[in-house]
Structure prediction request, 569 residues.
Amino acid sequence: MTPTLDAPRFVTTRPLLRAQGVTKSYGGVQALRDVSATVYPGEVLGIVGESGSGKSTFLRCLNLEETPDSGSYTLDLPDVQGNLFELDRYARRMLCATRIGIVYQNPHLGLLMSHSSSGNVAERLLVAGERRFAVLRDKAGAALDASEFPLDRMDAPPSELSGGMQQRVQLAKAIALEPALLLLDEPTTGLDVSVQALVLDTLKRLQRDRRITMVIVSHDLGVIRTLADRVMVMRRGEVVEAGLADQVFQDPQHAYAQQLVHAKL
Amino acid sequence: MTLASLTRDWEPMAYGFLDASAKREIRRKTLKAIAVPGCQIPYASREVPMARGWGTGGLQVSCTLINPRTRIKVIDQGADDSVNAASIRRFLARVSGAPTTTDTLEADLIQSRHRVPEELLREDQILVLQVPNPEPLRPVQPNMSIARQMHADADYGRMWLQLYEQIVRSGRVMQGASYPSLVNGRHVMTPSPIPRWDVPKLNMSRHLTILSAGREKRLHVVPPFTRVEPLVFDDVPYRVEDHAGLTCTRSGAKGFFMNEIPQADGTSAYELSDSDLGAKTIRQSDGEPVEIGATWYRDGEMAQ
Prediction:
C-alpha cells in the first residue's frame, strides 16, 4: 500500500495543496507511480530520494510544467477551482505567474542572465499586470531585500553574480508576488557549505515571517531536516515513507528510508 | 437569381507584374489581417525583381492593390528622390501604367520605407510600409513557435521588461525606431522602423496601413480608426524625438521630423525628412499656388 501524508494532529485547517494519484511515464520509464500528497497552509513539505526517484518530476507537475498521465491536483484558493492538471496553457501560465513561485537548482532555468537582477524580479510583476515603473522598482527592491540580496547590486545581471546570489535573485523573483505556494528544487545544490547555510537561513526566516507554504525537493537530508515539517521519501517514482520530519528521521520504517537516513560517506 | 449569375467567371490575368493567384493570395491575407488588427498573417511571398530586404514585401502589396488609375507615391525615409524610392516608383509605373506623383495629397497609394508622411492621410489613401522584421518579440524570444504562443496568450511581459531594462541602464527608453505598439488593445506589433515621431500618426488614423515583410513572408495591418498605443509605463510618458524646435535650413519649415546633416565645422544643419513637404513649402514661399494639407503635427506637437 502506498503511504500517504495525513494531516498532522495539530492542523485544523483545510490543506492548501492536495495531489492525488499522480502517475507519469516517459516512454517506457515510469517516473511517478500513484504519488499523493497534501500540504497545509504555512507548512513545509520536504521530498527526499536518490537521483531518478521522481521528486523533481513531481515538483514540475506541481508547477504545472508537466501534465501527468493521471491524477488530480487542487489548490485551496478562492479563485482556483477543479483539477489544475486540466487547465489550458493560458490558465496554467497565469496561475503559475501569480500564485506559485519556484526556485530551480539551475539558475539558468529561472533567470534571464543578461537582464538586471531587479528586471528579473520585475518580470514577474509585469506578467501580473503592474505598469508603473516606480512601483516595479520598489517592489523588486523589497523582494530582493527580503531575500537578503545587497541592493547596491540590484541592477547587476545574474551572469555577474555568484551562485548563492543567483539563488537569492530566484528566491526574490519567486516571492515577489507573495505566492500561495513556493516550490524549491534543490535550491542549495552546487553551493558551498557556508553559502548553503546563508540561503537556508533566508528560507527559514521567510517561512517564519511570511508563513509561506513550501514544497522543497532535495537529496540532501540536512537541508530537509533544517526546513521541513513533514517529509516524503521517494524511490523509483513511488512514495515509500511519509510522516512528520522528526518521526521519519528518528525512526524510519521502510528499509530504503532507514538506509537513506543512516547513510554516511 | 443565383450567386453565379451575379458574379463573373474568374479569369486568370497577369497585371502589375504579379500573376492572378499571387495577387489573390495577398488580397486574402490582407483581408484576414484587417479582420485581426496587428496580428501577423503569413503569406506566400513571390520573387520580385529586387533583392529581399529592399522592399519586396511592400512591392508585392502595391502590385496587388494597383490599377491603371492608381496614383502612386513611393518614399524612402521620407524622400521621393532616393535611389530605392525612384526605382520602385518607376517599376510600379512600368508594370501597371499607373500615374506617379510625389505629392502626398494627390497619391492614392503610398509605399514607404521607414516614414509616414507629415501631411494627414485621408480615408481613400492606403499606406504600405516596408517591414524588415515584423516580429516584435524576436529580441526577447528567438524561438518563433514560442513567440506565436506568446502572441496568442497576449504574453507581452518581456516587451515591458525590455523597456524597464532600458530605463534602468540609460535613464530613459532608448528604443528609437520600431517602437512596440499595442494594436486595438490586443496584439503588439512593430510598426516597421518608423521613428517614434511617426507612431502616434497611426493611432485612430483615417487611412489604411498595410505593413508587409517579403523576406519574412508576413504582413499585418492597422485598419482605419484603430487604436495604436505605444507600450509605456504609466509613470514614464511616451516621448517623440526632440525635433520640435528645429528649423529646416532649405525651406524654413519648423516643427517637423528633420534629417540631421553634419557640417564641416562640427555643427549640424537640419532639413525636412519629408522631402515633398519641404519642396512644397519652398514653392509656396516662392509665390507658387501650392496646396499644403493639414499636418499631423503643428508647431512640433501632435494635433489632438
